[in-house]
Specification:
By secondary structure, this protein is α/β, with parallel strands linked by helices. The strands form 2 sheets. Strands 1-3-2-4-11-5 form a 6-stranded mixed sheet, sandwiched between helices. The longest helix is centred in the C-terminal third of the chain and has 20 residues. The radius of gyration is 21 Å and the shape is globular.
């Protein structure tokens, strides 16, 4: 199957599942010259987490259904420590594309990085601070003097924790302590053992912690950032121009996979297990594994829906939302100055990306019963 997951250095993390595209197919029809099917182009995509979990289902669906292959690309996810690492890897050309949040990208723009979002994947901000359900912490201001865990110091959880603290009257330099806790069971254990008081991480990561640690979390009010856009596909401006076909194929395949997953989350997870078997948690029976991962995927799907922002086309979000977020980050002292929308985002590829029948895909997803 035309997909794989690789390490940052490029060595295989899992065995390539093989190509479905025929290479060297020769057609002899009525004296025509022989035709050779083109080999798909390898496209490395930075993924903002060391863990490849249920939230990658849209990619897996696009692989299984052949949507990437049909557009001439072979997607390889490259797990990284977080959005900041994704931006760094795009800047260094280690990967041409990455899924990353706008905060480190905006910081890079202020330092001269010429990269942009060309597809907004998450229509609302996926990050929120959570505490154990029984915690005495009920609002952001109650985090004064507390320790907040993040998946890694390269995670956007660091930026969000600091911004929310500042927005709620705290000094992020002195009033809170931020420490890396890893993901899943490791993060759950540190929370249960009172090594940290709260977790600042993404929507799916909270669901994974609950699944792994048997701990119930309570989400703190994140209305300050809830309406702001989150992760999207980013690339250097020269890459967007010079590798436009690949950028469109990547984003379109992901959008199609998103439509499928929204229509049938359970089928999307079953496909994920088929495409990348290592994503299925060991030690769980089939029913439990499926239930837990559907729960994780659904946590993310809520923020993939177009209605979260009112957008009409996949990959879009509104200039007003990005501008308001930049203003918020400046007020919170995360950015020194606002980055203008036109310098942060380009939607020149959106029309091409949306050239597919979403209704047909949704119907196919609802009727999906197994291998294609």
């Amino acid at each position: 199957m035309p997909a794989s997951i690789t390490t940052q250095g490029g060595s295989p993390l899992v065995t390539r599942l093989g190509r479905l595209a025929a290479i060297g197919v020769t057609l002899w029809l009525a004296g025509l010259e022989p035709a050779v099917a083109a080999e798909p182009i390898d496209v490395r995509v930075g993924w903002p987490s060391r863990a490849v979990t249920a939230q990658t289902a849209p990619f897996a669906v696009a692989v299984k259904m052949g949507w990437f292959r049909e557009q001439g690309i072979d997607v390889q996810l490259v797990p990284l420590a977080g959005s900041a690492d994704c931006v760094k890897n795009v800047a260094s050309r280690a990967v041409p594309f990455a899924l990353a949040s706008p905060e480190p990208l905006a910081a890079g723009r202020l330092q001269g990085l010429r990269a942009k979002v060309f597809y907004t994947a998450y229509q609302a901000n996926i990050f929120v601070i959570a505490v154990p359900a029984a915690s005495s912490i009920v609002k952001i201001a109650d985090l004064k003097g507390r320790t907040i865990g993040v998946p890694s110091m390269g995670s956007n959880g660091v930026v969000i924790a600091r911004a929310l603290a500042a927005a709620n009257g705290l000094d992020p330099e002195t009033d809170i302590t931020i420490v890396p806790v890893g993901e899943a069971a490791q993060a759950a254990a540190m929370l249960k053992n009172h090594q940290v008081d709260a977790l600042s991480q993404g929507d799916t990561q909270h669901a994974i912690v609950e699944n792994a640690g048997g701990i119930k979390l309570r989400l703190l009010d994140n209305r300050d950032i809830a309406r702001f856009p989150s992760d999207g596909f980013i690339a250097l401006e020269e890459t967007i121009q010079g590798r436009e076909k690949e950028a469109v194929a990547l984003a379109r395949g992901y959008a199609m996979g998103t439509v499928f997953a929204l229509a049938n989350p359970e089928a999307a997870i079953r496909i994920l297990y088929e495409v990348w078997p290592q994503t299925r948690a060991p030690g769980k029976d089939d029913a439990t594994a499926l239930r837990d991962d559907v729960r994780v995927l659904e946590a993310r799907l809520q923020n993939l829906r177009l209605e979260r922002s009112g957008a009409r086309r996949w990959g879009e979000n509104f200039e007003a939302n990005y501008t308001a977020y930049m203003d918020f980050l400046v007020r919170s002292n995360i950015l020194k100055e606002r980055v203008e929308f036109r310098d942060l985002v380009t939607y020149l590829l959106i029309e091409q990306i949306n050239r597919f029948d979403s209704g047909k895909i949704a119907s196919e997803a609802r009727a999906y019963r197994g291998s294609r």
